[in-house]
Amino acid sequence: MKHFEANFDGLVGPTHNYAGLSFGNVASLSNAAAVSNPRAAAKQGLKKAKALADMGMIQGILAPQERPDLHTLRRIGFTGSDAEVLNKAAKQAPALLRACCSASSMWTANAATVSPSADCRDGKLHFTPANLVDKLHRSIEPITTGNILAATFNNDKHFSHHQHLPEHASFGDEGAANHTRLCGEYGETGIELFVYGQEATNPTAPKPTKYPARQTLEASQAIARLHQLDDNNTVYISQNPDVIDQGVFHNDVIAVGNQNVLFYHEQAFLDTQNKLNEIKQKFGDSPLHFIEVPTNKVGIQDAVKSYLFNTQIITLPSGEMAIIAPTNCQENEAVHAYLQEVVTLGTPIKQVHYFDVKQSMQNGGGPACLRLRVAMNDTEVAAVNQHTLMNDVLFSELNNWVDKHYRDRLSVEDLADPQVLIESRTALDELTQLMQLGSVYQFQK
Ligand SMILES: NCCC[C@H](NC(=O)CCC(=O)O)C(=O)O
Predict the structure, then answer these.
(1) Contact indicator for 300, 294 with CB cutoff of 8 Å
(2) Catalytic residue among 227, 250, 265, 289
(3) pTM for this prediction
(4) Is the pLDDT of residue 445 over 90?
(5) Ligand 1, residues 12, 173, 248, 363: which to mutate, most atoms within 8 A of Cβ?
(6) Which residues are annotated binding-site positions for substrate?
(7) Whole-number Cα distances in Å, 222 to 93, 120, 164, 175, 204
(8) Kind and range of the H or E element at 293?
(9) Which sequence spans correspond to the domains of the chain?
C-alpha cells in the first residue's frame, strides 16, 4: 500500500475582500478597507496548487462558501427580498454585513482538524470542522465546511465526519492551524501535536493579554477523543502568549512540521524543552529533526510579516523535502538569508520554492493557511471525490470559471450590491456541477 500526504487548498471565493475583521491578525487589520482583486486571488491560489500537483503531489481543491451569507442575515432579523436584506443590513449594521461577506473559508487550514487513519483506533480518517467561534465572520463557516468535506471525502467506509465542537469560547477551535503531525512514513502512526492558546477551565493558566487566544486546550482534547487518538501519540503544547500578543494568532504563524521535521521559532511555545523531550520520547528511536530558529536570526515581527513559518513543508516523490514559501519571504532580508541557509543544515529540507499569494497574505493567510493536509493511503485517495483533485483539466476549467465569474476589483462598499450576490451564486452553482459536489449550499436547498 502506498501513502501520501495530500493538500486540499481552499478555492478563493468571489467576494474576497479586505474588511479588517480579524482582531489580533496584523495583516487583516492593517489592510482594512483596501480594494481587493478576487480574480487575482483565486488565480494565485490555483497556480500554487497546480505547481504542487506538477511536482508530483496529490493536490485537491475545496470549494468556497456562499457569500454574502443571506441565510445568516435573515437569521439575525433582516427581512424582505435578497436585495432588501442586503440594503437594510448595509444601512443598519454595516459591520454585520461585512462579517457575512468574507471569503475566509479559503484558509482551509482552519476548515477542520484531520487525523489520518493510521492514528485513529477505528482505522478511519477523521475530520472535525473547526467552530471558529472567536471571529463572527468565521463562526458561520462550520456547517457548510462539513457539507463540503462530506461531498469531497464522500465515502463512509473510509472517512468519519464529526460535527463541529459546541459553539462556546471554552471550545474555541481553529482546526489544523493549531495541529501538526510528526511521523516516519505517512502511513505509520504519527504523533499529533495540539497547540493551544489558553485553558478555558483553568483561569490561572497563562494566556495573552492584548489579543485573543483562539484555541483552547479543552477543544484540542475533545478533538483527540473524537478522533480516537492514543494518549501515547498525542502531545498538548501551550503557545507562548507573548507571541500571540505580537500577532501570532495561530500556531502555524510560528511553527510547521512534516514527517520527522519540526520547524519552529525559539519563542513559539511555553515549556519548550520539556515538550520537545515528550515528543522525542513518544516518537521513538527514529531520527527527528528539530529546526529551531533563534530570535537573533529572525525576530517575531519579521516572522509575522514574512510568514516564514506559514510555509508548507512537503515531501517530494524523490523523498527530499521542500519549503513552499510566499514571495514575501524573499523580500525580507533576514528571512531570505535564513531560507538560503536552511537547505544547507543537513536536514531533509533541500529546496525552497516561492509563490506569490499576496492577495491572501494581505488578510493574514500564507501558503500553509490555504491548505488542509490529509495523509492518505492509495485506497483512501481512490475513495475521494475525484472531481476535486487537481490536474491539467481541472486547472484549466477552474481558471476559465474564475475568468467568467470573478471581478478584478472589489471594495467593501460593493458588498451590498445585489449583483455581487447574483454573480456569486451563479458561480457557485456552476462550480458544484463542475466538481460534482451536489447541493452543499443553503441557496441550493
Ligand atoms: N489561517 C489564516 C486565517 C486568516 C484569517 N483572516 C481573515 O479572516 C481576514 C478577513 C478580513 O479581515 O477581511 C483569520 O484571521 O482567520
Answers:
(1) no
(2) 250
(3) 0.98
(4) no
(5) 363
(6) 19-28, 110, 137-138, 214, 252, 363
(7) 35, 14, 10, 12, 21
(8) strand 289-293
(9) 3-67+102-444
Measured CA to CA, the distance from residue 40 to residue 326 in angstroms comes to 15
pLDDT at residue 243 in the model: 98
Distance 365 CA to ligand 1 centre (A): 7
User: What CATH number was assigned to the domain covering residues 3-67+102-444?
Assistant: 3.75.10.20
CA nearest neighbour of 65 among 153, 162, 146, 176 = 146
Return the SS3 of 234.
strand
Ligand 1 atom closest to Cα of residue 17: 13
- Report the complex ipTM: 0.99
Instruction: Examine the pLDDT at 373 and tell me if it is beyond 90.
Output: yes
pLDDT digits (tens, 9 = 90+) for 242-254: 999 999 999 999 9
Residue 69's pLDDT band (boundaries 50, 70, 90)? very high
pLDDT of 48 above 90? yes
Give me the catalytic one of 5, 174, 192, 218: 174
The pLDDT value recorded for residue 132 is: 98
Ramachandran category for residue 20: left, alpha or beta (phi over 0 → left; psi -120 to 50 → alpha): left
Residues 6+ apart with CB under 8 A from 167: 131, 133, 139
Whether the CB-CB separation of 9 and 312 falls below 8 Å is answered with no
Which pLDDT value is given to residue 424? 98
Whether the CB-CB separation of 62 and 373 falls below 8 Å is answered with no
